[in-house]
């Protein structure tokens, strides 16, 4: 079958294996910056667009202020709910719990590590699982 075709240079070039893409187009580790980019001057409009917006009206309306509370402006329209007061029991429930005298935490902040934890060794299975897999990459040549 091969004998049917005449021996041509085109056939010879097609029979050669292709080069790897990285070998065909080697990249330089340095990137070249054109002179026009180095001499660039920003326009006034570009500087104006890069600045943050400054709001002229910077005050907060009183109905949205957290310091001004007006019960008539509240979302609750029930007059009884507006006059409601908490009982002493509810107020006591709202206070955070305090530690009683002589309270000790379950564990001290600094404590000793047990001997068994210091002498622990990983099992064969744990050691096998903890080692990373090394992938063989055919495109990387070793130096």
What does this structure look like?
This protein is about 30% helix and about 0% strand. The chain has a domain of about 35 residues. The chain has 8 helices and no strands. It starts with 8 loop residues before the first helix and ends in a 13-residue tail after the last helix. The protein is mostly helical. Keywords: Repeat. It holds the Pfam family THEG. InterPro entries: SPMAP2-like (IPR042401), THEG (IPR006623).
User: Roughly how many Å is the radius of gyration?
Assistant: 39 Å
Q: What is the helix fraction of residues, given as a range?
A: 25-40%
Secondary-structure element order, as H and E?
A: HHHHHHHH
Give the DSSP E fraction (strand runs of 2 or more residues): under 5%
Number of β-strand runs: 0
Give the structure's gist in a few sentences.
The protein has 143 residues and is mainly α.
Give the topology.
Elements: H1 9-15, H2 21-24, H3 35-38, H4 44-50, H5 79-83, H6 88-94, H7 115-118, H8 124-130
Keywords:
THEG; repeat; single chain; 143 residues; mainly alpha; 8 helices; SPMAP2-like
């Amino acid at each position: 079958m091969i004998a049917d075709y005449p021996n041509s240079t085109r056939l010879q070039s097609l029979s050669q294996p292709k080069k790897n893409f990285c070998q065909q187009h080697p990249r330089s580790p340095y990137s070249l910056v054109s002179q026009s980019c180095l001499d660039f001057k920003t326009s006034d409009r570009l500087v104006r667009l890069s600045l943050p917006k400054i709001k002229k009206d910077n005050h907060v309306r009183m109905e949205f202020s957290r310091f001004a509370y007006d019960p008539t402006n509240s979302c609750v329209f029930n007059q009884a709910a507006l006059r409601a007061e908490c009982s002493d029991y509810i107020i006591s429930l709202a206070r955070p719990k305090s530690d009683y005298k002589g309270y000790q935490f379950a564990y001290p902040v600094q404590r000793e590590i047990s001997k068994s934890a210091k002498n622990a060794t990983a099992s064969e299975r744990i050691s096998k699982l903890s080692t990373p897999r090394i992938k063989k990459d055919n495109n990387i040549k070793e130096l």
